[in-house]
Design a protein that fits this description.
It comes from Bradyrhizobium symbiodeficiens. This is Bifunctional salicylyl-CoA 5-hydroxylase/oxidoreductase. The chain has 783 residues and is of the alpha/beta class. It is built from 28 helices and 30 strands. β5 and β6 form a beta hairpin. α2 runs antiparallel to α3. It is globular and about 85 Å long.
Amino acid sequence: MKVAIIGGGPAGLYAAILLKKQRPGADITVYERNRADDTFGFGVVFSDATLDNFEKHDPPSYRRITQEFAYWDDIAVHFRGTVHRVGGNGFCGCSRSKLLLILQERARELGVVLHFEVDIDDETRFADADLVMIADGINSRFREKYVDHFQPEVDLRSNKFAWMGSTKPLDAFTFIFQETEWGPFIAHAYQYEAGHSTWIFETDPETFERAGLTGLDETQSAARMAEIFGWFLDGHKLLINRSMWRNFPMIRSKRWVKDNMVLLGDAKASAHFSIGSGTKLAMEDAIALAEAMEKAPTIKAALDVYENGRREEVEKTQHAADVSLVWFEHVDRFWDFDPVQFAFGVMTRSKAITYDNLKLRAPDFVAEVEKSFAKQVRDSGFDVDTSKQVVPLFQPFRLRKMEVANRAVMSPMCMYSAKEGVPTDFHLVHYGSRAIGGAGLIFTEMTCVSRDARITPGCAGLWNDEQEAAWRRIVDFVHGNSAARICLQLGHAGRKGATRLMWDGMDRPLDAGGWDVVSASPLPYFPDSQVPRELDRAGMNAVRDSFVAAAERGERCGFDMLELHCAHGYLLASFISPLTNTRTDEYGGSLENRLRFPLEIFEALRLAWPPHKPMSVRISATDWADGGITGDDAVAIARAFAEAGVDLVDVSTGQTVRDAQPIYGRMFQTPFSDQVRNEARVATMCVGNITTADQANTILAAGRADLVALGRPHLVDPFFTMKAAAWYGATDAFCPPQYLPGMDQIFRNSVRDRQDLEELRIKAKPKTRAELKAEATKPLAAE
């Protein structure tokens, strides 16, 4: 077998090593345009888990790498005169040039041929090769040469960064958030060998411009950074090596393979430096390709296995990097946070670390987080004990005169089980059991304001006396048997009305028994859906009056709170989104115009709803479609409703148009809640694939939402919140007297179960290399 590898970075060299070990007789040659010891940057960083992978696949190179590494266990966050150190992380740093020399030496030992200062721009010279690996980096010329085939997407991020070095010693992975007269600067720094550390400086484009960095050369830029971070550098100089300011390109390629050519490392996909995974991804690409070559019967089959099997892991890492880089791009959102909360946000920014695992590795730090959160609650008017450790989920919250005992919310979820809009015994059990189960706040499903406002024939309504009586029965049960508050969500289906029950075909039109539908514009949801009538002024008046009448009925039922549904492509959302509103009158065009009718409805409801009771609005913070609502639009929408008197923004996304392309994942809508809360400065509730109390605590402690709505977890476990209270020892949780023996038992069991689980996790967690190194260098005790 003959293999040509274009690019002598970590991906190309490690692939050569692994393939040569696997096939000693193979003719493997690496071609690198630079000199053997010529490299961009200073240090690279790996986690202990990554090093475990290296040890498994090539012990000799692993041993040489770890002999050269600097080890640390802590992350240090410097912010507004404070330092928070978080241990238990397990990272290792190494000189990038030394890493390359180690891999080069190992490759030569195995018989790989290395050519340096050879610039390859035409792969046809390898026409006799069985396999051509393209590992020529983030600016890959071959990816661009075959751009129509590989179809890369390049997202050039907004922040400017420069990669420098220093002689400053560091004993932790260090983040420094520095306020300047021009704006915030960030330093990502770590030691990679004795006397040398990597420093990546980052700032937003406006601060970059104001600081006069435009046009400065490397030396001048280094001097400016030395001025800004001089207090920390303590006289140590900054080093440069092609350290020009640039914008980071996030690269995703639709295809990784062309004929017998395959992309590896940054040539195929990049991950932002803020999670330190670039070199890890490159070398793990090499591992994945080598494993595919070993198992597959042909090279073509191996390349298919590599691309299909490796893509998910790469995309997961890229998603974490995306979330992390967005946090850094918008660090100004959090600049007025308490430093402890800010540091917690740094640690949990990419979702890889959560409240519970951080508590295991750094219990003292998380205790500070809990104390800081309790102080915020006390400052808002609650008499809470800041010395008592209570997780954020079980801290109280207030909206106007309504207080909730905890931050766990049962999300509004359509049950499609009403009879002519009348809630049944199913609804009584559904809402009543979740209230008894401990949720602080219960939302009704979207309750329709008229018969023709329904989504399906099974939707609940509140337009007649029978419905009002049924809802009053439910509200009375909730108030009489739990500490939960209950919110009435009112909505109008608009163009998504007259459709089948969810389990019969969600959003599909009824075959028979339908009704006329209306919308902002006469655009059907599906091509075969009913074409809605464009709502005129008379129709708007009728809709507004039906909302007000339903709200008045809701007040008579005793609901504690009212929510207006302006999301998911329903009637009011159809006015807000430019994808569903093509009007040319005063209700179309600009966002201000498109908001006019939804705000009119909200203002009418605010007048009809008692002033001491809160109101919220549910919005779709993005349409997940080109030309639709964006996160920045969501901030403007939230501000408009806040000015009209909204107390809480329920931040959801999508479901506006059928061809939307949402990016799913854990807590996938939370970043939009984060943006709305911290830019519009309004309380938010987040929702969307939040499945655990751990995730809820993470979101709340990081300041990404004020309430956390959980849908599917509540569907299968009415006592989700009670169980979480037991798990976290929230002894003030309400329980009906009939259930107290069960509550007492689960609280006692949970103490033991939590201790057992934590002990197992601690025992199962291998010692970090920093710990092992410390043990190895510890003097032996005297006999």
